[in-house]
Inverse folding.
């Protein structure tokens, strides 16, 4: 697809993200750390918290499609980065702010956001995947909230949207067990908009993006704004969940959880 010019130099401002502005104002944003399964480090997490403001202000962009480079969407937090968080108040304080910004800025961005979940999605990557206005997922892909695997409280984006998407019973089950969910299951229980075969995922994302980009823009954006008021009502629960998650990073379970992942063994929580 031919690319067009944008006044925003996304690539130089957001390491770990790759951008291509295609015809009809469709911006493809690719999480681009394939050697790390697109795991989020400090720079990428910061970028995911800031980029939505630029996209919102970019007059060339009508619709955004987010996907992952290689075989993963985003495999959670980079373990070296997470290990540096445990017990570090200043780092945790910064991550708390950015995690909130990812969710709130995606909600506040007027442009329609589509996620194309091509592979495993965990952590901040999963927040981007499921906070998208339309979430498409490969049948073969899998995701998990994964917080309890690390020894920290689940919540984050899940507290604001999972109970609305799949109901409280399913939300509690999958958040507390940290079980992986494949595309077909996520579609069936309502956690994603639509699951398709992996071979069709990007073409389907492109088709839907063009349909929206060539449709009435104000109508689409006002519809997003109206429906997001349901999420806004859950903002107090979201803020509380972020605080409780970050509190967990100051305790012994998070330190053990990170160490166990690094050593590829089963954690021994107190």
């Amino acid at each position: 697809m031919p690319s067009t010019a944008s006044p925003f130099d996304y690539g130089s401002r957001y390491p770990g993200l790759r951008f291509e502005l295609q015809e009809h104002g469709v911006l493809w944003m690719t999480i681009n750390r394939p050697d790390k399964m697109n795991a989020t480090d400090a720079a990428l997490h910061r970028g995911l918290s800031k980029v939505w403001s630029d996209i919102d202000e970019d007059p060339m962009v009508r619709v955004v499609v987010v996907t992952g480079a290689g075989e993963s969407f985003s495999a959670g937090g980079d373990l070296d980065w997470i290990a540096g968080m445990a017990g570090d108040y200043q780092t945790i304080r910064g991550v708390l702010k950015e995690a909130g910004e990812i969710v709130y800025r995606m909600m506040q961005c007027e442009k329609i956001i589509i996620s194309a979940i091509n592979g495993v999605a965990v952590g901040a990557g999963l927040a981007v995947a499921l906070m998208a206005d339309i979430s498409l997922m490969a049948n073969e892909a899998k995701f998990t909230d994964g917080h309890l695997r690390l020894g920290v409280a689940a919540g984050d984006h899940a507290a604001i949207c999972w109970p609305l998407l799949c109901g409280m019973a399913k939300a509690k089950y999958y958040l507390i067990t940290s079980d992986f969910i494949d595309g077909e299951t996520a579609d069936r229980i309502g956690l994603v908009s639509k699951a398709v075969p992996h071979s069709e995922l990007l073409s389907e994302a492109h088709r839907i993006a063009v349909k929206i980009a060539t449709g009435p823009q104000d109508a689409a954006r006002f519809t997003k704004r109206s429906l997001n008021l349901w999420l806004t009502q859950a903002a107090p629960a979201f803020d509380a969940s972020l605080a409780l998650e970050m509190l967990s990073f100051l305790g012994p379970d998070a330190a053990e959880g990170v160490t166990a992942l690094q050593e590829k063994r089963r954690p021994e929580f107190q």
Notes: The chain has a mean pLDDT of 94. The chain is about 55% helix and 15% strand. The radius of gyration is 18 Å.
